Every structure is written in structure tokens, then in C-alpha cells.
């Protein structure tokens, strides 16, 4: 028995879509808070329409055929979109593989000749598996983009440059300093020096868990760059254990003003700029 798979799938497209939607909606993990059922139907219909227009008797066993470029493109877009929306890999996998169940159910209903049905089902399994690989590859890529963007945002938030007083900037550093983060710290600080015309910057490291030779090098590079901009740096928040580590490692901070707390650094900065803060009683 010869089966024209292209005509069969296009004729039964609506039935496949209904079965596919039924399979997806039956999944208990379906996230209706991320996408409405109407949006899910529209997304599924677009993919199924592309598939039924692309597949035929010659390419059904060749997932790499250029005939499926549109399918892969739509599927990649859906997968990345789902990664950004917060879907899990399992939820995205269910979306793709439940399509196979719907197609196979329709094929079993329409093709009664088992000898003709068997190779077609095998080919569809291979085809949907290849679509699954595309889905997961693009999903991981989308999730990596989300993680990278969030990491950049966290780095940006964790290195704020605050104007403490006219001409005095404060940069509280929290967490571990590495090369990439030091670069962000340096760029933010230099940019704020230009914007505010400040002459003093206080780098508070009370939130840095440990100081080693690498962290010290990063700090010294930042201070040297600041000096090139005509500003002076003060390091504050040096705890006793950090001071011992610096001495033990032989790190030379002798040409840098260091203070134990942000308050003492601010007091020193006031003195450098001939500012005097007095306590007064409000009458």
C-alpha cells in the first residue's frame, strides 16, 4: 500500500493539532501562568503548519534536509523564547515530543496496513528526535544568554559608585573580586569621576571576604587608573584578618591611604578637601 504522507498530514492537520493540544493540556506541569492556552494553540499551529508543508515521502527519513529549515527556525525561536520566559527543559521537551504522540495516533487511525505504517512511524520518530535535539540546543543557548545577562546586571548592581559628598565618591565592594569584575569597577569609577568631577574616591572593601595577591593587584590597578584621572583613592574596611594577610603576603600598599572603616576614610577625605563637620544642637 502506497501512502502519500504529505497529503495525509495536511488533510489531518486539524485533528493532529487537537490531539497535540490535548496531550499538552493533560500535562500537570503545564505553566498557564507563562502562556495562555490561546497563545499555546497559536504557537503549536504555526509549527505544525510548517511541518506538514515541509514533510513528504522523500525527506521524511532525512531530518537534515533543507526542506525542514523553516521548521528548525520556528522551533529554535520557540525554544529560545521559552528559555527566556522561564520554562524548564522538561516542559519544553514535552511540547515537542507530545507532537509525535499526536501524529502517530493519527497515522495508526488512517493507515491500517501495518507493513506500510511501521517504516513511516520509525521515520517520524527519527524526525521528531532531531527536532528535539534542535530544541534542547537552542533552549540551552537561550538559558545561557539569560544567565549571562543576569550576571552582568548583578555585577553592575553590586558595584555602585555613590557620591558621598561634593567631590567625594564611595564604592562599596561586596563579594569576590576577579579580573572581569575589577574591569567593571574600574570603568564605573572612572566614568563617575568624569561625570562628577570628584577628586577623591573611597574603595570600601569591608564586603570582600578575603584579600590575596590577585585581589591586591586588581585594587592597585584600579587605584593607578584613578590617579591617572587626577583623583586620589582611599581604601577602607580593612579588617584585622585582612591586614594580617596583606602583611603575610608581602603586598606593598605603603603608597596608598588605607583606613579601618568607611567613617574614618570619609573623615580623612573631609580633611583632604578642607571640609569640617561639626555636631550642633538644634534649638
UniProtKB/TrEMBL annotation:
It holds the Pfam family RsbRD_N. Residues 158-269 form the STAS domain. CDD domains: STAS_RsbR_RsbS_like (cd07041). Keywords: Phosphoprotein. PROSITE patterns: STAS. Coiled coil: none annotated. InterPro entries: Bact_StressResp_Reg (IPR051932), RsbRD_N_dom (IPR025751), STAS_dom (IPR002645), STAS_dom_sf (IPR036513). The keyword Phosphoprotein applies. Gene3D superfamilies: STAS domain. The keyword NAD does not apply. It comes from the Bacteria. This is STAS domain-containing protein.
Amino acid at each position: 500500500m502506497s501512502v502519500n504522507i504529505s497529503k495525509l498530514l495536511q488533510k489531518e492537520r486539524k485533528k493532529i493539532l487537537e490531539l497535540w493540544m490535548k496531550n499538552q493540556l493533560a500535562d500537570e506541569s503545564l505553566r498557564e501562568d507563562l502562556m495562555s492556552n490561546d497563545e499555546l494553540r497559536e504557537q503549536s499551529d504555526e509549527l505544525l503548519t510548517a511541518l506538514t508543508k515541509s514533510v513528504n515521502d522523500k525527506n521524511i527519513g532525512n531530518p537534515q534536509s533543507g526542506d525542514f529549515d523553516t521548521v528548525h527556525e520556528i522551533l529554535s525561536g520557540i525554544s529560545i523564547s521559552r528559555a527566556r520566559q522561564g520554562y524548564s527543559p522538561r516542559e519544553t521537551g514535552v511540547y515537542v515530543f507530545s507532537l509525535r504522540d499526536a501524529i502517530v495516533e493519527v497515522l495508526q487511525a488512517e493507515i491500517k496496513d501495518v507493513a506500510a505504517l511501521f517504516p513511516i512511524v520509525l521515520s517520524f520518530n527519527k524526525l521528531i528526535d532531531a527536532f528535539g535535539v534542535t530544541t534542547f540546543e537552542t533552549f540551552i543557548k537561550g538559558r545561557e544568554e539569560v544567565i549571562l545577562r543576569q550576571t552582568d546586571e548583578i555585577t553592575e548592581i553590586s558595584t555602585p559608585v555613590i557620591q558621598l559628598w561634593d567631590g567625594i565618591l564611595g564604592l562599596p565592594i561586596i563579594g569576590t573580586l576577579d579580573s572581569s569584575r575589577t574591569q567593571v569597577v574600574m570603568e564605573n569609577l572612572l566614568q563617575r569621576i568624569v561625570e562628577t568631577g570628584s577628586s577623591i574616591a573611597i574603595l570600601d572593601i569591608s564586603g570582600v571576604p578575603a584579600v590575596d595577591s590577585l585581589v591586591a593587584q586588581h585594587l592597585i590597578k584600579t587605584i593607578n587608573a584613578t590617579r591617572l584621572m587626577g583623583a586620589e583613592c582611599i581604601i577602607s574596611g580593612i579588617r584585622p584578618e585582612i591586614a594580617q594577610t596583606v602583611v603575610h603576603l608581602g603586598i606593598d600598599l605603603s603608597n596608598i591611604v588605607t583606613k579601618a572603616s568607611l567613617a574614618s576614610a570619609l573623615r580623612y577625605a573631609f580633611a583632604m578637601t578642607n571640609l569640617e563637620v561639626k555636631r550642633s544642637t538644634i534649638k
